[in-house]
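Please fill in the sequence for the structure shown.

STRUCTURE ENCODING:
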């Protein structure tokens, strides 16, 4: 006689199944229906710019679906025009099988046998969201991106509705937009009792009268959660003076991840003491650090990098700084001592470093050798990303011999010279003679001027690395 398996054991078994298989088991029984619905609707992305699902989710989003949603990505940007759809268009049925559901409300008009679905205005989208949000009581992760939004409409009402519905659940909040956008998000002083991960991206045109928002609204908002934040990110693309903001920040005693991206010469024109103090206070706990403080216009005047280089060097005077890092992403400057300073930082985390990304400094072969000489002592290193001067097999040889246990490598080449057919052809011909049987590499990506190189080149690379499973982290070999 068959024994009935308890539901919690089925749930444990299902946790090992791929998402696509779970989706296909939706009609198997009630348990797998709930599991499949959780996969299908746990993350929803709503955008005014994506018209592939023009009518469905927001217009028909009911509590039966909403209960499964845990993560939301809302992107608001002004668009105009119409999208022509056949009345029997059912492409959204196939798109619903994707992990992320992209949708937006639309306004429909009739035209012969076709319907023209107008892209929604931002106001129409906000109205639809306000109607839907009360049912999304299980959301614990939200991204709201208004980077390209000039008029902020009635966002205050949207924020109030969202914070009152699921604010107490939120573990992560990502806000991207102008300083005024951030002020509207924070003016209601939401109660994020569970918040551990906060990311603030300041975008759009910077205006002088907005400067006080950093000190009077954003700093107090961050301070409300100072005792619970484990991860904090601040990106400032237009680089207002961030010095006063960091000065007014309270200590973050349990912070484990810090990510700061800004133009150093604009973001800290006179006072970097607040950021310095934050790094000193968190030195013992910090596990993940991103410091991309490329001075604006430094490609014209390299001397603009001197202040940030001096500042990073002074951080090393604290013996506890950078000693427990698991992940490091850094702009080492292009100055002669920039790589030396970065290598000293890397040495501090010899026993812990698992992921290293060196950005915006193109390394020649001698510098790559120097870097790998240091990294051979980092037995925990799994992920490496660097910029290199030119593509050659010698770099691959060095990586395979010096770092045989590496899991993932990303090589970027900023020069467009590499796109010349004879350059890639020569590289492929050399690679055909290589076989890295002892290399345990799982993922490899090669980029040139921000674009992936051609698949023919990557397929030749893959033939020489038997352990390789993915290219650029996505394409299966």
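FILLED IN BY: designer on duty
SEQUENCE:
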């Amino acid at each position: 006689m068959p024994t009935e398996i308890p539901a919690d054991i089925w749930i444990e078994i299902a946790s090992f199944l791929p998402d696509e298989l779970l989706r296909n088991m939706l009609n198997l029984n009630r348990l797998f229906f709930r599991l499949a619905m959780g996969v299908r609707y746990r993350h929803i992305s709503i955008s005014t710019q994506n018209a592939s699902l023009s009518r469905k989710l927001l217009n028909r989003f009911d509590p039966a679906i909403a209960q499964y949603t845990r993560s939301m990505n809302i992107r608001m940007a002004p668009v105009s025009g119409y999208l022509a759809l056949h009345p029997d268009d059912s492409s959204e049925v196939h798109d619903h099988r994707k992990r992320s559901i992209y949708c937006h409300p639309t306004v429909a008009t009739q035209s012969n046998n076709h319907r023209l679905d107008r892209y929604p205005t931002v106001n129409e989208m906000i109205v639809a969201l306000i109607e839907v949000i009360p049912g999304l009581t299980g959301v614990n992760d939200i991204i709201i991106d208004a980077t390209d939004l000039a008029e902020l409409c009635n966002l205050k009402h949207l924020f109030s509705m969202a914070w009152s519905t699921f604010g107490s659940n939120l573990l992560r909040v990502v806000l991207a937009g102008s300083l005024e956008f951030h002020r509207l998000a924070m003016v209601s002083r939401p109660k994020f009792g569970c918040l551990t991960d906060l990311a603030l991206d300041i975008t759009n045109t910077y205006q002088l009268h907005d400067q006080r928002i950093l000190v009077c609204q954003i700093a107090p908002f961050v301070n409300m959660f100072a005792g619970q934040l484990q991860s904090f990110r601040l990106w400032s693309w237009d680089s207002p003076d961030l010095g006063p903001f960091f000065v007014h920040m309270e200590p973050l005693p349990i912070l484990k991840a810090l990510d700061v991206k800004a133009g150093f010469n604009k973001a800290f024109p006179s006072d970097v003491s607040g950021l310095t103090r934050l790094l000193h206070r968190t030195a013992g706990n910090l596990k993940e650090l991103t410091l991309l403080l490329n001075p604006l216009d430094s490609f014209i005047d390299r001397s603009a990098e001197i202040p940030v280089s001096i500042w990073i060097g002074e951080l090393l005077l604290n013996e506890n700084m950078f000693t427990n890092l698991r992940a490091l992403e850094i702009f080492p400057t292009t100055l002669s001592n920039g790589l030396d300073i970065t290598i000293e930082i890397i040495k501090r985390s010899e026993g812990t470093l698992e992921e290293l990304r060196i950005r915006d400094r193109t390394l020649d072969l001698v510098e790559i050798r120097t870097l790998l000489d240091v990294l051979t002592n980092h037995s925990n290193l799994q992920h490496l990303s660097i910029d290199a001067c030119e593509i050659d097999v010698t770099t691959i040889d060095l990586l395979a011999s010096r770092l045989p246990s590496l899991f993932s490598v990303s090589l970027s080449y900023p020069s467009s010279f590499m796109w010349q057919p004879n350059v890639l052809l020569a590289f492929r011909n050399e690679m055909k003679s290589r076989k890295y049987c002892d290399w345990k590499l799982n993922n490899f990506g090669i980029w040139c001027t921000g674009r992936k190189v051609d698949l023919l080149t990557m397929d030749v690379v893959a033939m020489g690395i038997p352990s390789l499973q993915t290219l650029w982290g996505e394409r299966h070999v």
